[in-house]
Amino acid sequence: MSSQNQAYILSMLAESAIQVMPNLTTENIQSEVSLHDLGANSIDRAEILMLTMAALQLKMPMLKFAQAKNIGDIVAIFNDHLEIAAV
Amino acid sequence: MFNKAVTEKTICITGLGIVAGAGQNIDAFQQTLKSGHNSIIQSQRYPMLAFPVLQAELQDFNFGTALKEITGLPTDLENIIRATIRRYPLVVEAGLIAALEAWVNSNLISHNLDLARIGIIIAGQNTTHHYQYQLTAAFQTAPEYLTPAYALNFMDTNLLGIISELLKIQGPGITVGGASASGNLGIIQGFHWLQQGIVDVCLVLGTLADLSPMELQAFHNLGVLGGHHFAEQPQQACRPFDKQHEGFIPGQASACVILETKASADKRQAHCYAEILSAVTLLDGNRLADPKLAGEINVMQQALQQAGLQPTDINYINTHGTSTPLGDETEAAAICQVFADDTLKKIPLNATKSITGHCLWSAGVVETIAILLQMHANFLHPNVNLVEPINNNCRWVGNKFENAKITIAMNNSFGFSGINSCIVLAKSH
After folding, report:
1. Rounded to a whole number, what is the distance in Å from the CA of B416 to chain A's nearest CA?
2. Under an 8 A CB cutoff, do A43 and B144 touch?
3. Per-residue exposure over B92-111, b if at least 16 CB sit within 10 Å of its own CB, e if not
4. Which residues in chain A touch residue B150, judged by CB atoms under 8 angstroms apart?
5. Of A20, A50, A59, which is closest to B87 when you measure between CB atoms?
6. The whole model's pTM is what?
């Protein structure tokens, strides 16, 4: 995926994460880290994904993220759907 | 002459906590009670309504600041709370602070009790209507993006989970609804659990009323909301038992009491504010909003009987007193029936709602706290705006506080749908 897309998605994800968990900073949001590692519980994670979806104007089932192991995986999944939406 | 033996099954109140428009902690609330200064304003939160909304609003409340200001809250618990607090509705934030203050006040921070012997009762209902209302416009545009957190946040039980996790409570937990009598009903339920030996400690939290525009419009359309004649003088609008009363003025407060058996309190050397001598609730068999004289008389008499008291044993009544004409008249008449004329002249009456507004779900708990503070600081708070009483047989506290030694108090709360409640409290020494 283009690094432009990746950076954009990551920034939307970071904004959403900080909205849900105000103790976080953008520096915390790294590809190798998982939301769980950052202290997100299951509801937090679902909220963060939902907010990011809304920011990216994507509509997709939450189930798509079930296998995501870290933030990098989440960004990749969003990116796949951005490309589908763009077509 | 009252002389009931204090036994192990005596039920006490060992902790108090409050976050209110009338004071964001117990000390501030006590000062407000003494001064009689009410914080009723014209609300700016309901621009869509065509009439002025007067409310004793919780203003300038910041969760982080309030958390820091709870004296005696251990740093590690404070840090856990900060790390796990989320975008909670106001009702949750205010409730959590009130519960924490009561928990610390009761010295339960360092308890070594069995976690399953501590219960929680959330006294209040329909706490999330405004929260839902505020999400509705976005939902109608894009329903798919509704936060999943709504699935937990929309329920009144949300507070049960949050408080029990933070305070490590593993006994029974429920919500109790009783309209404007919810606060008293929560205390009554806790009292029963303790008497039955189900728990040794019970946290009873009255929830803050965050009304949506729909509830306010409906109350207005029903003709029970005040603030018409005094729209431009909000602090004069709440006038329980005054001839110019015209409807209730909503107030915002979350208030918490810790109920405990005397045996448990003594074992951990906790301070008892008061004993609950009796706690009664009875229905009128009426689906409407109007109070019934017979029901109010009956519940007060039953409370006296259950406590093993005569009317002459009561030395103070904290009325329900909402500033609605029918409510005030019915309650005054009921009190005059329960207490003979010569007794009546010796029992001071006041209406805490003249200071706090009608805190709806938490009113019973707010007013219980008001009773205990008055008992221990030896004063009676004023009846604000009581200029021309509707009933001259009663002995009303005046417009300034009075010095007094109160030892046995009655606490009335009545709610729509024919709900009556009465609790009798005795000061602990």
Report:
1. 36
2. no
3. bbbbbbbbbbbbbbbbbeeb
4. none
5. A20
6. 0.96
**Mean pLDDT per 10-residue section of chain B, whose length is 429 residues:** 62 98 97 96 97 97 95 94 87 97 96 96 97 96 94 96 97 98 98 97 98 98 97 98 98 98 96 98 97 98 97 98 98 98 96 98 98 98 98 97 98 98 96
pLDDT score of B1: 39
- B174-178 long-range contacts (CB < 8 A, ≥24 apart) are B174/B120, B174/B121, B174/B122, B175/B121, B175/B122, B175/B123, B175/B124, B175/B125, B176/B121, B176/B122, B176/B123, B176/B124, B177/B124, B177/B125, B177/B126, B178/B123, B178/B125, B178/B281, B178/B413, B178/B415, B178/B419, B178/B421
CB contacts, 8 Å: B146 with chain A: 50
Give the model's pLDDT for residue B5. Answer: 60
Give me B294's structure tokens.
């017979």
- ipTM beyond 0.85? yes
**CB-CB neighbors (< 8 A) of B148 in chain A:** 43, 46-47, 50, 62
